[in-house]
Write a structure and sequence with these properties.
CATH superfamily of the largest domain: Hypothetical protein, domain 2
Structural class: mainly alpha
Helix content: 55-70%
CATH class of the largest domain: Mainly Alpha
Distance between the termini: 19 Å
Order of helices and strands: HHHHHHHHHHHHH
Number of domains: 2
Number of helices: 13
Strand content: under 5%
CATH architecture of the largest domain: Orthogonal Bundle
Shape: globular
DNA sequence: TACCAGGAGAAAA
DNA sequence: TTTTCTCATGGT
């Protein structure tokens, strides 16, 4: 489906335009997991407000969050929207992580095992699971989100409505299983899709977009 | 005021 | 099996 050289060419254009992104924007791996749930269908700025509340209340750890009542957790994450749904989902993830022996216990398991297990947690779909695997567990899994679909379809590489697994497997098959590359690539895609066109001759957005027609 | 933003699951068709 | 609906806040 994808040619390796085309995917790498696009990566290098993005990297040249924006440089290293050093993702995910979080202070700990547990915070990555929390952010992955909170950002579901939600602008990141709103997630930051919720993360700030959790940090202020010292609830950004597995034990502290697992010990919170639903209502209290929902109150803290309110700015991220869907707070009742997300509070339930966060508690589900906490239970899964605790049952896995915490982050260190989960790290001892294979990527496939972790992925299948994560997808069984109610509230964790493929995008959330893969974000957690890539950014919290540093596994070579490519995240397919709305930004990935938008960019690749604009470049004419996909139709845009392919099933999640079809795209993920196609991209992973075309590239070497390198978590650092997948991390940087996805972060660059998000950066590029959020970048506003500066309208100037050296606009970074236009540098990447040029000659795609 | 209306629309949008890094999904996922349940219900309905 | 596929489509539609629901969950909700903050920024523009």
């Amino acid at each position: 489906m994808f040619q390796r050289c085309i995917l790498l060419g696009l990566y290098h254009r993005l990297y040249t335009a924006y440089g290293p992104q050093s993702w995910w924007p979080a202070r700990s791996d547990f915070e990555v997991i929390v952010g992955a749930v909170l950002t579901q269908n939600t602008a990141w700025t709103n997630v930051e407000y919720a993360i700030r509340n959790l940090r202020r209340e010292r609830r950004l750890s597995l034990r502290a969050m697992d010990g919170l009542a639903h209502g209290e957790l929902a109150r803290l994450i309110r700015p991220a929207g869907y707070f009742n749904v997300k509070a339930r989902r966060l508690k589900n993830v906490c239970k899964w992580l605790a049952a896995s022996g915490g982050l260190s216990g989960a790290r001892r398991r294979s990527t496939n095992e972790l992925r299948e297990d994560l997808l069984r947690v109610n509230g964790v779909g493929p995008e959330t699971a893969d974000s957690i695997l890539l950014y919290a567990f540093r596994r070579p899994v490519f995240v397919i989100d709305i930004y990935t679909r938008r960019l690749l379809s604009r470049f004419g590489l996909i139709a845009g409505d392919e099933p999640y697994e079809t795209l993920r497997i196609a991209i992973e098959s075309a590239l070497a299983p390198d978590h650092s590359l997948f991390n940087e690539y996805h972060a660059l895609i998000v950066r590029h899709e959020k970048e506003k066109c500066g309208g100037t001759r050296d606009c970074r957005h236009c540098q990447v977009e040029q000659n795609i027609e």
